[in-house]
Amino acid sequence: MEVTKRLFELQDKKYAEFQAKLTPGIPRESFIGVRVPEVRKLAKQYIKDEEFNLFIKNLPHKYYDENILHGALISELKEYDTCIAAVDEFLPYVDNWAVCDTMSPKIFKKYKKELIVKIKEWISSDHVYTCRFGIGMLMAHFLDEDFKEEYLESVAAVHSQEYYVNMMIAWFFATALAKQWDKTVLYIENNRLDQWVHNKTIQKARESYRITKEQKNYLKSLKR
Fold first, then answer.
1. Contact between 147 and 139 (Cβ < 8 Å)
2. Which tens digits make up the pLDDT trace of 29-70?
3. What is the average per-residue pLDDT within 144-164?
């Protein structure tokens, strides 16, 4: 496809080596080596191209960079229903954290009422990166003015043996501590999270510039 040819024109083999080290479990030969800013530029070009529809329907992709581009393209979609359909079609093929975290559709911020329903569905999924994506979207869109305490409960209810799910849970709670301290710290004080997630949440929160020195010291005392 023309899209894949264009990705190879932007290839940086040293960057491919770097990406491969950050994304264990993905074969080295899957990495073309295109830097993310270049992928995002390409997405803005191809979102208006007729080959866009051919590309996003051509699943599974062969290359990691094609999947990164796919996620970037989804992030550019302007129609909410079209975007949700594209996300749901793509998520089963997502097999690493980087592709998962690339997807951040801009249109979501305009459809919070509809989005929260989908987020709850994604979080309940047994598929690692569907669950991770759901938690990531909850963190991105519902920890500020749209926050409800029930969202903390939804994530605390996730118990997984998967590293990339647990890392996202910890990231979510560390961010929630920065934005909604009073409600969130109760989950740490009451040991509501699995031990590894509990301690990783404290670690990530204590690394954050948004947490005060006093809060960091208090969190340290709660480590299990």
1. no
2. 999 999 999 999 999 988 888 888 889 999 999 999 999 999
3. 97
Q: What is the DSSP string of 88-116?
A: HHHGGG--SHHHHHH---GGGGG-HHHHH
As a whole number of Å, the CA-based R_g of the chain is 19
Q: Between the CA of residue 125 and those of 21, 96, 169, 208, what are the distances in Å?
A: 27, 16, 14, 29
Phi and psi of 33, rounded to 5°?
Answer: 105, 50
Nearest to 141 by CA among 156, 150, 151: 151
Write the single-letter amino acid at 151: Y
Distance CA 89, CA 83 (A): 10
Quickly count: other Cβ atoms within 10 Å of residue 48's Cβ. 8
Count each helix (H run) and each strand (E run) in the chain, helices first.
14, 0
Under a CB-based contact definition with an 8 Å cutoff, are residues 187 and 152 in contact?
yes
Q: Which of 165, 161, 221 is nearest to 188 (CA)?
A: 221
Residue 209: half-sphere exposure toward Cβ, Cα within 13 Å: 0
Q: Measuring CA to CA, how many Å separate 196 from each of 173, 202, 223?
A: 13, 10, 10
Please, what are the domains in the chain? 1-110 (no CATH), 121-224 (1.25.10.90)
Residue with tokens 């709660």: 222
**What does the alpha-carbon distance between residue 54 and residue 56 come to, in Å, rounded to a whole number?**
6
